[in-house]
C-alpha cells in the first residue's frame, strides 16, 4: 500500500472497478428512464442484461424493505420504462 501524505492508498481491483462502473451506468440509465424520459438513441436504452443486473443489485443492497415491496417497486419502474420506450429491442 502506498502512502499519500499520511493517507493510506488501497490498490483498486480492476475487475471490481469495472463492475462498479457498469453498475453506475445502469443506475443512471434507470434513473433517467423512470423519470419518463423519452429515448431516441439505442445506446441510452436498457438491455435485458442491464435490467437483470439492476434488479438483482437492488434486491441485494436493500436491507430495510420487504422483498415483496421492492419487487413491486421494480415492476412499477419496469412499466414506466416500457412506456417510455426505454428497453432495447431484442
Structure description:
By secondary structure, the chain is mainly alpha-helical. The chain is about 60% helix and about 5% strand. It has one domain (about 15-85).
Task: Tell me the layout of helices and strands.
Layout: E1 2-4, E2 7-9, H1 14-34, H2 48-61, H3 67-83
Antiparallel strand pairs: 1-2
Helix pairs in contact: 1-2
Average of the residue pLDDT scores: 86
Task: Give, in order, the helices and strands.
Answer: EEHHH
Task: Give, in spatial order, the strands making up the sheet with the most strands.
Answer: 1-2
Number of strands: 2
Largest sheet: 2 strands, antiparallel
Rg, Cα atoms, Å: 17 Å
Structural class: mainly alpha
Shape: globular
| Separation, N- and C-terminal Cα atoms | 45 Å
Helix content: 55-70%
State which percent range the strand residues make up: 5-15%
- Count structural domains: 1
The count of helical stretches stands at 3
Low-confidence stretches: none
Keywords:
two-stranded antiparallel ribbon; globular; 90 residues; mainly alpha
Amino acid at each position: 500500500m502506498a502512502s499519500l501524505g499520511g493517507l493510506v492508498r488501497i490498490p483498486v481491483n480492476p475487475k471490481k472497478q469495472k463492475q462498479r462502473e457498469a453498475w453506475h451506468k445502469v443506475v443512471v440509465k434507470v434513473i433517467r428512464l423512470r423519470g419518463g424520459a423519452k429515448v431516441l438513441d439505442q445506446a441510452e436504452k436498457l438491455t435485458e442484461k442491464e435490467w437483470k443486473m439492476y434488479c438483482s443489485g437492488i434486491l441485494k443492497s436493500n436491507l430495510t424493505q420487504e422483498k415483496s415491496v421492492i419487487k413491486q417497486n421494480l415492476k412499477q419502474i419496469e412499466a414506466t420504462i416500457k412506456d417510455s420506450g426505454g428497453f432495447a429491442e431484442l
